[in-house]
Amino acid sequence: MTRAPAAGTTREESATLAPVALDPRLVADLVTLVAATGDERTTVRSPLTGDAITDVPHATSQDVEHAFARARTARQRWSRVPMRARSRVLLRFHDLVVAQQSTIMDVIVAETGKARRHAFDEVIHLGLTARYYARSAAQHLRGHGARGAMPGLTRVRVHHTPKGVVGVISPWNYPFTLASCDGLAAIMAGNAVVLKPDERTMLSALIGKRLLVEAGMPEDLWQIVAGPGPSVGHDVIAGADYVCFTGSVATGRVVARQCADLLVGCSLELGGKNAFVVLGDADPDKAAEGAVRAAFANAGQLCVSSERFYVDRAVHDAFMDRFVARTRAMVFTGDASWENAMGSLISQEQLDKVTAHVEDAVAKGATVLAGGGPRPEYGPYFFEPTILADVTPAMDCHLQETFGPVVSVYPFDDENSVLEKVNDGGMGLNASVYGGRRTRAFARGIVAGSVNINDGYSASFASIDAPMGGMRQSGLGRRQGKEGILRFTEPQSVAGQHLARFGPADGMAMESYARLMTLSLRLMRRFPRR
């Protein structure tokens, strides 16, 4: 077949790839925050060039055990710190993130290879999260009354007790915000944190802890360990009172099984094969602009990015002309500049997977409308944004998550039938619907934890007061909102009984007591609120 025109343009001055220059003193200081004594180390490399940034020591099982012990000791003191004082720590952290955003973005770009504009998304999200829980945690965690068994005689109060030490296992794709956003809610609820970031992006997680300590958080309250998931991750789960995991469906199942064996709760944000629907009354220009962001942010390495596009035939041609044109016009620079529209994939393994999905689709008859292959002039793992048509269920990219800058486009004629296709497969993390008056009704029929109207994912992701998570195989539990902090607590009901007691009064026969209670049940049935 004839390859589609290459997606993207370049600047002449960017012909030579340049690494992001990180301050060696900063890097060395960050590595000292890792709780590790082992001899094994992981070399952190930049996907922009493949060059080494630093070596990070692995934690041994004993290191993880000691990290939990330090965290538990610190938590005992922290749980007695007033809520207002905890809030001040998070607000100072918010201010530090905003003030030091340039350094933070440099670290993120160096470790992930993502475009600076997408590293800035992490700054925004974590700042929003810190501010939200600093200002709302007291309300979410405040004890509240519950209806007692005997009106006026049974008084019940429900309290929210911290779980203890929360184990967080965070991924490489958004390594700054996803390493810290769950932990912020956890410490506001009175818990401690033991964090195991992906070993490829340790510095982005470590700079988060450094800023928290600078903001006034006790250093031992937030422990960071490093090393391979099968060993260090296993040890983190074994020591935790609750586990947060963000990653693949396959690994999420492993985490869930271990938590089940330990009878420890967990929240899992897993993968998605997210749909982007363009209804017949959508504005093609607005939908195309949103499609580029929804599909190619962070080179598609985002759990809520869109990979399946369903377009009403009434606007299909107009939308596709604009979507393809915008994709081909994207500017790539292969560096940390703001002009760069899309960055690199994280690794050779990810590049191989994305390449394999496209090659499989093309071999089975798919048409490449834009992109279609690697672009090594922008980095060793760079794959150009790719739009595929004529994709069939026989192709790997049809329902398998690619986790790269590759999308499939399907025209449709009937909204009811396409809704079935949108809900096909076992995932349900995010979806997008572009259109007019019918969009909200259509969105309600989608099986997904978040549905964005006339937006790709930002409307829900940045609305921290709203819960976020997946349905079906896309996860368990929710981050953000009230649900995102209450998961780190155990509800405790304290009930007091006054005057009357449960059971017959002295001298009353049990049968008489039973008749009295039966009459009470019948009377109370007449009152709808009881």
What do these coordinates show?
- The chain has 530 residues and is α/β, with parallel strands linked by helices.
- 41% of the residues lie in helices and 18% in strands.
- The protein has 17 helices and 20 strands.
- The strands form five sheets. Strands 14-15-16-12-11-17-18 form a seven-stranded mixed β-sheet, sandwiched between helices.
- A hairpin with a 7-residue loop joins strand 4 (144-146) and strand 5.
- Mean pLDDT is 94; it is low at 11-16.
Main β-sheet description? 7 strands, mixed
Mean pLDDT: 94
Radius of gyration: 26 Å
Walk across the major sheet and give the strand order: 14-15-16-12-11-17-18
Number of helices: 17
What's the oligomerization state? single chain
Strand fraction equals 15-25%
Number of strands: 20
Low-pLDDT stretches:
11-16
Structural class: alpha/beta
